[in-house]
Amino acid sequence: xxxxxxxxxxxxxxxxxxxxxxxxxxxxxxxxxxxxxxxxxxxxxxxxxxxxxxxxxxxxxxxxxxxxxxxxxxxxxxxxxxxxxxxxxxxxxxxxxxxxxxxxxxxxxxxxxxxxxxxxxxxxxxxxxxxxxxxxxxxxxxxxxxxxxxxxxxxxxxxxxxxxxxxxxxxxxxxxxxxxxxxxxxxxxxxxxxxxxxxxxxxxxxxxxxxxxxxxxxxxxxxxxxxxxxxxxxxxxxxxxxxxxxxxxxxxxxxxxxxxxxxxxxxxxxxxxxxxxxxxxxxxxxxxxxxxxxxxxxxxxxxxxxxxxxxxxxxxxxxxxxxxxxxxxxxxxxxxxxxxxxxxxxxxxxxxxxxxxxxxxxxxxxxxxxxxxxxxxxxxxxxxxxxxxxxxxxxxxxxxxxxxxxxxxxxxxxxxxxxxxxxxxxxxxxxxx
Length: 433
Description:
The chain is mainly alpha-helical. Helix content is 76%, strand content 0%.
């Protein structure tokens, strides 16, 4: 199949259906579930547990720093690319690392259940950090697997397949845990989530291993050069220092409005008068379904429209959706306001997801898939997480309205950087050397 024929195959609605029909589509669905499952359990859902345990707002915001494991995952991503795990070598490079990360995640989540914050906040956060590290490692491997298993022209549509599984994981880690926690308590809820990890574990056992060369027995200096220095040198060499720094800055700022608001979302829902079950039904069931619809539309749009314009639309949509929370703040306890707010917010975030994933996938060199994609995806969360950690203090001093306005205005630097990069922005097409 020629390059032109390959690109045509994944255009429009037929391209979206073709992505679902790929042999690896079902695998990506369950691997997406593995990525999405722990994200809320060490993030937004965690803040609700801490609030009910009597932890104050400032400490809740600071506790969100444990999720920095997701922001610095590029630090150990070279090991995922270059190091074989002796106990899992029979599964291959990608599947071996994924099995290791899933088992480590189970240990972390079970440890959180056995060491609740009311008994020892320090031990609880220690296990949370372990779970966050494992979840970030799952992300590294799944992202690399997705880029390597599909041709470059299919990445936009396949991102929607992955996002579907990811959103299902968010339902389990959001609505599922809240419903169980309402009925049986937080500890049993986190134990139940551990059982769901059997699904991706089984998937790893039956999935095929993508081609990924790992050199055997290389000198330490060569391993450092190839694993840690090579990916970064390659990225700057291909794009030039100026454009490369601009691309990294743009990716880092893209999700700033969403990340700034995220850590205080659950406390806001509770303060607005909603129970955990209501939050689960509206935010983590209905909201996630709306997000899935947005993701499917975003995946289709990537196959049809100019990437630069999609980035503009996505960025502005996510930012403006934060203003909808003012509607909720002015109508506390009103379900219609909750539904309206979450409709806009989740649809905007869902649409933006495949757009950003496709854009970042097109920037990587497949020789360094895990490391380069981990760097980009980590940067996509770092500034927002850093500022979001202090959002509790902003709410404490100025109220929720100030947070909604500030988070919306934070999109301005992103749009400025995009305008500067506009002419030099590369088209999405992953490089394989």
